[in-house]
Structures are given as structure tokens and as C-alpha cells.
Amino acid sequence: MYKSTGFISFFLRRFTGLVLVLYLSVHMWVIGAATQGAEVFNARLEVFESPVLKILEILLLAAVLYHGFDGIRLIIVHYFDVTDYRKSLFYAAFATSALLTIVGGIPLLLYALGMWS
Amino acid sequence: MTNRSSQGQSATVRVQRFNPDVDTKPYFDEFTIPLEPGTTILDALREIKSNQDGSLTYRRSCRHAICGSCAMNINGKNMLACNQPLKDHLDRKGRITIRPLPYQPIIKDLVVDRSAFWEQYQRIKPWLIPPEDIPEKEFRMSPEEVEALKNAEKCIMCGACYASCQVIGLNRRYIGPHALLKAFQKILDPRDSIPGERLAEVAGDDGVFRCHTIFNCIDACPKELNPTQAIETLRKLAQKRQAFEAMRRERQKSLIVSTPRISEPMGD
Amino acid sequence: MRIFIIQRISAIALVVFLSLHMIVVHYPPGHLDFSRVLERLDDPLWKAIDIAFLVAVLSHALAGTYAVLTDIERVTPMKRILAGVLVVLGIIGLAYGTYTIISFQPPASLLAAH
Fold this sequence. Notes:
Chain A is mainly α.
């Protein structure tokens, strides 16, 4: 495989994309419990309140944010002539998603540990 | 030879070898060669071939970065061997690794089978198709129109971009950055009369929408061209194909009318 | 080209919808249950927004899956079958998702009390 920054972004974009498709089907199944009434819905949602799954949600958040900012980067490349700044744009997308993962992840972590009021 | 190398510095050249008649798998050979000021990577290969191992096989021709024969993979990056000083690519231990271009079948050592590359090039009809009523005088393009093609016309078809593209690794039907850059050149050329047909071809399943903006082609190009920008331009044009075609017809009409005829056509 | 356009449009829609979804539903983190979701979804406007979100997310996910799979040379000849399967999955997903969103109704006992 030909290694490059572009390849890392391409691989991560595809990988997070497929992970999110799988998550989407689980997410729809969980919320789909609402069709069977409030009790079934609450019971199925309760499973996802476990601290381990809450912490995994931080990884999910990272995947969503990276996929999103990488997509915004590609839209910028498509509409503007900025291929000369390709490396900076990649690092910008990576840094922004990392930063927002930390900002958004801390409340999730605190909540998972029961320290969020 | 031994005399000279003992005086100056030396470099270790690791070359990927493969002889289909004998080997089942590529392997690496190491050669130590004298390092002199101005030694290029191609000089290093020539030194090995003439003085150490005559069976080493590689392509080369002009040695001036214009024939496009000697593109190869140096330390994991595709480039021309002839315009790169050996010194710039040595690691701390004074070593350099040379492999053939990736994603293509190896014929022998550093020589790869480039038929897929040329087949894709053929596919985009890399020639100009002029309108039927050709003016007597030359087609005159505006300086802006010439400028727009500058990106594409310096291409030497070395295959460095094609062999750096991960999409090629995944799917050999993909037209490839080299041919899309050439398609861009033909489509934007005001003298060409079938931009619509060309756009339909590059907007198909194997064309510009298969590109995933990995940018390897820009980094690999020894002529500092920009296939990615060409592909992005084609993507935009493909979405307004009809309008572009109409614009071209208008442009060619003005071209033909405004060209003054020096002499009347001969009567029969 | 069609896939590319679907991806671009749904991507831009998702940036808006997903930000909204995260801020409204998941932040700040708290205990979620039926009644909590119902507080928001009782409004028909929110139901409409969520159905539009569902359409965007399904088209983006399925077009993305199609693009990832057809990139592989061996899958390309089967792209019509693949497209058919994905369209069917999309329709099932849309029907199921819409049914789910509509299911967020106040319980019958509460309705009677009104």
C-alpha cells in the first residue's frame, strides 16, 4: 500500500463510515422499541445506560465528528481551488474533530462515571 | 573502481528484484556504490548494472525528466529516478530502497507491465476532434484558454500518479489520474467539438466520481501538475454538461466567423 | 454522478440535522426515557424534522455503502443487484423509522385525561 496522509484520511473516512452505518441500524432498532409502547422502549434504552456503553459512545462521537469534518474538508476542496493547502486542511479537520471529541467526551465520561448532575 | 569508492563516501542501494523465470516472490538485493557529487538515483542503477550485476533490469531513456521512462518507487514514494539526487533520499544509515511502481504486474525487477495504464489513456480518446467546418486559417485560442490547459499539457505520461492512486489498487477499471488529466485538457480545449461525449465518459462509473481526493497524484507528479484539481473541475462540468456543450458550440462559431480568410476557396 | 450528488446534498443536510440532534437530544447528557423524548416529539414540527433527518441519514448511509462496495473491482459487475438491495433496505428503513417516530404518542390514558 502506498502510504500518505491522504490515504490515512481516506481509510478513516471509509472505516468510520461503515462503523456509523452499523451503528445506525442498531440505533434504529433500539428506538424502534417505541412502536411496542413506552415500557418496552424504556427497558431497551436502559441497556444503553451502562457505563461501558456510555464510554463507547465517546468513540462513536469521535467517529461522527471525524467523518463530518473530513466531509466538510472534501466539500471545501470540491468548491474551492485549495489543493495546495491539502495537508493543512487534513490537519485542520483532524484537529477540530479531536478537539470537539474532547469537549463533547468529557460530559459523557462524567455521566458514565455518575459524576454528572 | 575499488580505489575510488574507498576514497569517498558510499551508499547502500536496496533494490527489489524479481525474475519471473526463476523467482516465485520478489526479494531485495543490496549493493554498495560510490557516492559522488551529483549522483542521481538513475546513475546509481546504471553503476550497479554496468559494474556489479548486469542482470538488473529497469527502464530509462532520456535522463532529463522528459521521457517518463524511469518512474519508480523510491523509499515508498513514486518519482523519476533521473532527476533526483541520490544523496537526498538516503536515510541515516546511507541506504535507499528502490521498488518498481506499485499496483501493476512486475515483468522483471523494476520493469512493470503498463498496459492497463495505456488502455485507460486510449479510452478517453486522447486526440483532438475538430468541428466539421474547419476554418482555412489556424484556430486561434485566447491566452486565458491556453493558460487553463497549462496544468495538463506538461504531463510526460510517466505513470507516477497512476501507480500512487489507491483507487487503482482497489479497482483497475478506474480511468486513473493520468487519463483524467488528459481528458481535462481535451475537454477544456476550445478547438475540440465533442466535450459532451467526453464528459459523459469521464462522469461514468469508472470516471471522476470514483476519485476519493486522496491527493497522492499531486504529491507523486514529477512535473508538479495537479490531477486532483482537474478531476474536481471535470466533476463540476459533468454536472452542467448540456450548458457546457452549448457554450462550446457558440465559442466555435465565433472562432470560425472571426477568422479572416486570406484567400477565397478554390472553385471547382 | 447521481450517487455523488446524493452524498453531497445529504452530507450538508446532515451537518445541520446531526448538530441539532446532538444538541437537543444528547447534550447535556441525561437519563432518556419515553416521556422525555415525547416532550419534544409531541410537536408535529419536531416529528417532521426527525423524518427529514431520517431521509437524509438513510440516503447518506446507503449511498455511502454503495460507493464503498462498488469501489471493489469484484463487486462492480453486481452493482445493479447491490443497488436494488440497498433501495429495498432504504424503503424498509424509512417505513420502520417513520412508524417509530409516529409511535411517540401520549399514552391513551393520558389522552383520555385531557
